[in-house]
């Protein structure tokens, strides 16, 4: 266990990530809800961004509660915070955030990639109708994963009186419980695989595009190439945040990191960077959000 002064850098970093994430995701939710009210007909992008913002909002709240109590009230954190309810919400928001990010990468891939295969075209023209079902499926899958993790119920209480002279017997249930948790969370490899596939398809599409458009209009070629490159930059940045969060999340789920150690706090900081950084990239890559967000920042500065 490290002292509060040693954990102070973590508190500062976590607070900055939390404030940034709450601001950005709150802005994302408000802007899309405002557009939704005006249009009265939800678009796939609006639904997706609202779901992403809400899932990140929830994930940041869970991570902030965990970090706050783990630093200031470590005993209370161990006894009360890291319980069944917190485990469920943490697993749910972690899973649904990854699934929604995957849905966004698939959406970018289908809208920008120029493949002509019948299956791809079928998905491309129907993604608008399929998006609500994909979001619902992501929600149900995340709830299932969270429920299974609670069912695995690690760490389970062990009767120390019965096992105080049997170290091996105490170790075996612990290993089994860790394995159960890891097996459940390996289901999150599925959205990761889809994310990688979407990124790879965008790479292939860009490569084919640069060779296919040799005889086309220079302006059209540049515009299409620029769209591919911008999408690739966005998706690759998404992937970096996605992969770092996934790695930190899986490392945290092994419970092999000593509680209260520097590694413990570093893992928490990496995990908190995903819901903040990923949403910032969404704003920066979308021109219609840039100007309103700048006005919001200027308004805050002038107050």
From TrEMBL:
Keywords: G-protein coupled receptor, Membrane, Receptor, Sensory transduction, Taste, Transducer, Transmembrane, Transmembrane helix. The keyword Transmembrane applies. It is a multi-pass membrane protein. It holds the Pfam family TAS2R. It is found in: Membrane. The chain crosses the membrane at residues 12-33, 45-69, 81-110, 130-148, 182-207, 227-247, 259-285. GO terms for molecular function: bitter taste receptor activity; G protein-coupled receptor activity. One of its GO terms (cellular component) is membrane. Signal peptide: none annotated. The keyword Transmembrane helix applies. Belongs to the G-protein coupled receptor T2R family. PANTHER family: TASTE RECEPTOR TYPE 2. This is Taste receptor type 2. The lineage of its organism: Eukaryota, Metazoa, Chordata, Craniata, Vertebrata.
